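Lay summary. Proteins are chains of building blocks that fold into shapes, and those shapes determine what they do. In this project we predict the shape from the chain. Here is one chain we studied, written as its sequence of building blocks.
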Amino acid sequence: MVSAVARPYIDASVPVLREHGLTITATFYRNMFAAHPELSNIFNMGNQASGVQQQSLAAALFAYAANIDNAAALAPVATRIAHKHASVGIKEEHYPIVGRHLLGAIQEVLGDAATPALISAWDEAYTELATVLIAAEKALYAQAETTPGQLRDLRVTAIRTESEDIKSFVLESTNDQPVPEFKPGQYVSVSVTFSDGTTQLRQYSLSDAPSAGHLTISVKREKADGDKLAGRVSNWMHEQIVPGSILQLTHPFGDFNPDTESDAPIVVLSAGVGITPMISVLNHIAQTNPERHVVFAHAARGISHHAHRADISAAKKIMPRLQTAIFYEEMSEEVNDDTIHSGRMEVAKLPAWPLGDTNVYLCGPTTFMQTQWRALLEAGVPASRLHREVFGPELLDHLG
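And here is the predicted shape, written in a compact code that computers can read:
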């Protein structure tokens, strides 16, 4: 908790960050990468180019200032950030660099309004947050028995086309060591070094049940679309990786861990490539507890964009209490299946479940999760039962 001296300055920063946060974070990243170009190998430069990372950091600064005394709200966010950091190999020595350039950006943007007292308050607040994250990340590295940035070679043994733009890559060990253990919902970072010498890390959810023999990741090919740049890593993987290729992966991390072990009903809702961690959940339950009541709903642009249909079909054959609902925005023809719906996902069209005491898990585009989150609350699902996984930078919209 920040000191009584610093607290008024942090409180006063809330409206300032609302107005100038994005300019501060854009200035921060520009200056930091100019001084430390090596950090571009850790940060997602695609998110930098699109501006999403700057927006995320601005939202995080605002949320941190607005909730500085709300440990219950900030703790889950800190945990999620720690997992993301561990997955890309953030080290303790990175924090002073970030802190120095963040405070410098605040001074540069606010000018005379950035008084010594204000900068001192933010220095104290940042140091406190950094201390929490450093401790959490050290614990994660120790638990995983890995070191920051440690990579492991895995061989691609099979490639499956899941949809028009998604491929699954099955990975096995290159030696006698088993592949790393993970929990359904977690992800790995794939490290790619390009011909120009630059390196980029991208995180991909593990998309099959845990197995000692293999890992599977499903990668959506991100195509250029208007102002949106093509995904450098995803396109490279779709074009260059073949069976026998070697990929370098980090240890699995991630705090999105749906309850796959109990007998209680479970609801999983996804859209687009957000289906990947949910397939890991579904396949694991199919293997370990096929009698469990599962509601599995997914939204896709159309059938050609619906990945992992084979996994869902296989699960339905062995899970008598699996209920599915599929939503296609584009329906080329009528289908004689009352589990397939035209249009976007609607809570009213989902199979029924005990609303008050069932955990609901969401993964998909931000707008999808925001819409479903609101609809679920309106339908009577308690906020404590809602959980979500965010691909890419977290905008923290649920904190307000």
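What the prediction tells us: The first helix runs from residue 7 to 35.
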